[in-house]
Amino acid sequence: MSLIYLNGEFLPLEQARIPVMDRGFLFGDGVYEVFPSFGGRLFRLAQHLERLNDSLRAIRIEPPHPLQEWEGILTRLIAHGPQTDLSIYLQVTRGVAGKRDHAIPPQITPTVFVMATPIPPGNAETNARGVVAITREDFRWERCDIKAITLLANVLLRQEAADHGALEAILIRNGLATEGAASNLFMVREGTLVTPPKGRHLLPGITRDLVLELAAAQGLPCSIANIPVAELARADEIWLTSSVREIMPVIRLDGIPVGIGIPGPYWQRINQIYQGFKADMRGLGH
User: How does DSSP classify residue 100?
Assistant: First the structure.
């Protein structure tokens, strides 16, 4: 039987209950992480939990568990889940208060929720075909580096992409392309892989960092630099990355083909390296 974790208990999802006075419900006062488990092995757990802790401290919540405790919780969830690749959703809210008040109440206990669900099949096939994206002005708040559960702007931007037959919206702020509504951004231009620098206007992606590591290890030219929207329009290749969707090559942007309109050679090479990394995680590498 598949279980979820809620405040120290493992129980079926349909039995989980959270009080309506939880500040996550009332204010969106909390943060989250999403990361995969491949073949029962957690993908870059330490890096994901470090990002979680950074987000928690940024909103003044003390991390509820150290690494070893998190690992024990997650290992048990995986053992009771479907025997397939899983997406782990981990959420921490500030907790339940006695009254609805914007000010942070003292001595409040965080609400911790974790669930594991199967990763839908077809990621590899979709990425091999390529995906479609649009560009939109970024109207989110100024702390996009915090992985907050207040995602209404992201929801509306992703829905606008879906309305236009696209998978993702690439966001533009002050004339610069920063990231997708739920992904990090890469561009290939004249043989160099470029991704925007970390800062308050984009989420520091775990898969983003891994792609840079893998490319550097292969001696492939990389650059961390701003991407003006005009440069994005002239890119030879555009990719979007996330831990669950992996490396997605964009073949059309705002209705115009990217490069020659198919996943490019740089993506083919990096994706092959990335899939080898996954195989090593599963113990299937050479």
Answer: -
Of 99, 147, 198, 278, the catalytic one is 147
Does residue 285 carry a pLDDT above 50?
no
Element (H, E) at 126: helix 123-129
Q: Is residue 147 among the annotated active site residues?
A: yes
Alpha carbon distance 174, 176 (integer Å): 6
**Spatial separation of the C-alpha atoms in residues 97 and 131, rounded to whole Å:** 44
Q: How far apart are CA 39 and CA 282, in angstroms?
A: 5
Minimum mean pLDDT among 3-12, 14-23, 73-82, 264-273: which range? 73-82
Length in residues, the chain: 286
* pTM over cut 0.90: yes
Separation between Cα atoms, residue 90 and residue 31, nearest integer Å:
9
Which residues on neighbouring strands pair with residue 123, listed in sequence order? none
Question: Pseudo-torsion of CA 156, 157, 162, 167, nearest 10°?
Answer: -140
Label residue 190 left, alpha or beta by phi (over 0 means left) and psi (-120 to 50 means alpha): left
pLDDT digits (tens, 9 = 90+) for 83-141: 899 999 999 999 999 999 999 999 999 999 999 999 988 889 999 999 999 999 999 99
Give the CA distances from residue 32 to residues 7, 85, 137, 184, 217, in Å, rounded to whole numbers and listed in that order.
15, 20, 24, 17, 30
Max Cα distance, the chain (Å): 59
pLDDT for residue 249: 98
Backbone φ and ψ of 119, nearest 5°:
-75, 125
